[in-house]
Amino acid sequence: MPYPEDEMISLLKNAGVDFTSSLPCEKIKLLLEMLPESFFHVPLTREEEGVGISAGAALSGKRPAMFVQSSGIGNMVNALLSLTVFYKLPLSIFISHRGIYKEKIAAQVPMGYRLAKVLRGAGIPYSIIMKREDFGIIEKILPRVYDKNMIHAFLMSPAIWETSDPGRQRPEVRSRTIQYRMKKPEPAAKKQRSSLSPLSRFEILQTIAPYITSKAVICNLGWPAKELFYVGHQPSNFYMLGSMGMASAIGLGISLMSEKEVLVIDGDGSLLMNPSILATAAHYAPRNLTILAIDNSSYGSTGDQPTLTGSCVDLEAVARGFGIRNTVKVSTKRQISHVMKKGHSELLFIHVLARVGNQDVPDISLDHLKNKKQFQRFLKSNSS
After folding, report:
1. How many CB atoms lie within 10 A of CB 212?
2. Residue 152 and residue 199 share a domain
3. C-alpha to C-alpha distance for 72 and 65, rounded to whole angstroms
4. Which of 59, 189, 192, 382 could form an SS bridge with 329, CB 3.0 to 4.6 Å?
């Protein structure tokens, strides 16, 4: 009789799952070790980041599945609702349901006992998998997740894995990441005060517009998306309307699963909310990904409250500290145009210093689901 982990892998394969991500949990340690043998697998630094990366994979036509423990669901709810559910993207979530069965860590109990209520309150469909015989529930539901573009959570009791062999030897899996010897980081360019930077975000978007026509563009939410839409809509633009902090995660997911050149238009407030995505991006270092961080030292969409990039954080230095080797700091039209014209053969992080302020432009008139369909058609097209 196969081990439960083998049966689970077979269920995933039969449903066409082809993209997985996870954060560690001791109860499903063996299963997590097996995932890279059969699927493209992303080890995450935070659960919320996985929602964004999975969304990018789904936009690229993949069938993503996440593996997390119950304590991490609290880090995911907003992104699940304002990104995955809002854009009707498929995602299956396999949750190691801690705190309910032979739990030795007391801190796992509160979330474990309330997890079903949390999911129910969020309107996220779920199934409770108490024993191995319940795998039939997964077999029935999993294909529908992808055929119907829906989200579903599977709450998996630790009792399922009690028949596993913890000493079982797994074959070594060769990493799919790009390996390189880290160079000693060069000193990041000294950041000027953003109030002295000559360009507004809108002017920066106008400057880059001629250079993004053939790229898949993921634009940060709020005023940046509205301004980009006004500057010039194209089917290859994906406008975020919620899930702040997910722009670079979505872009990374797309760049891993698509040959298209991918440009993320991110912001200082967004990156400060989820900076660890830069570590995951550096780990994979996709050559077709550019992250353009427009830094005006303010939360422009909520009233221009200051961010910490105005006092103590240099985003280029942060990117280099996380391992991104190819970085540049710019602030003028000439500098921006030069770096956008120049080709690159590795992951590129562009730190653009800007002045505070939003352009008075109308709201985006394009329905978000129509935007998604246009964007997916572009990703499927043969032109690069």
Report:
1. 22
2. no
3. 15
4. 189
250-295 residue pLDDT tens: 999 999 999 999 999 999 999 999 999 999 999 999 999 999 999 9
Tokens 């002295």, located at residue: 196
Q: Is the pLDDT of residue 206 over 80?
A: yes
Helix and strand totals (H; E) in the chain: 14, 14
Residues 360 and 251 grouped into a single domain = yes
Q: With respect to residue 46, please indicate whether it lies within any of the assigned structural domains.
A: yes
Question: Alpha-carbon distance 55 to 248, whole Å?
Answer: 11
Residue 292 lies in a domain: yes
Beta bridge pairs of residue 156: 96, 129
Q: Which two three-digit tokens encode residue 31?
A: 């299963």
Q: What is the domain extent for residue 28?
A: 4-162
* Position 197, amino acid: S
In a domain, 337, yes or no: yes
Same domain, 275 and 336: yes
Are 354 and 205 in the same domain? Answer: yes
Same domain, 130 and 206: no
pTM of the model: 0.92
Q: 363 lies in a domain?
A: yes
Nearest 5°: phi and psi at 63? -115, 90
Which tens digit of pLDDT belongs to each residue from 285-334? Answer: 999 999 999 999 998 888 889 999 999 999 999 999 999 999 999 999 99
**DSSP assignments along 205-238, one per residue:** HHHHGGG-TTSEEEE-TTHHHHHHHHHH--TTEE
Q: What is the CATH number of the domain that holds 119?
A: 3.40.50.970
Cα–Cα dist 379/284, whole Å: 20
Integer angstrom CA distances of residue 378 from 21, 61, 156, 289, 302: 25, 12, 37, 16, 31
Nearest partner of 25 among 69, 62, 58, 60, judged by Cα: 69
Q: Are 264 and 368 contained in the same domain?
A: yes
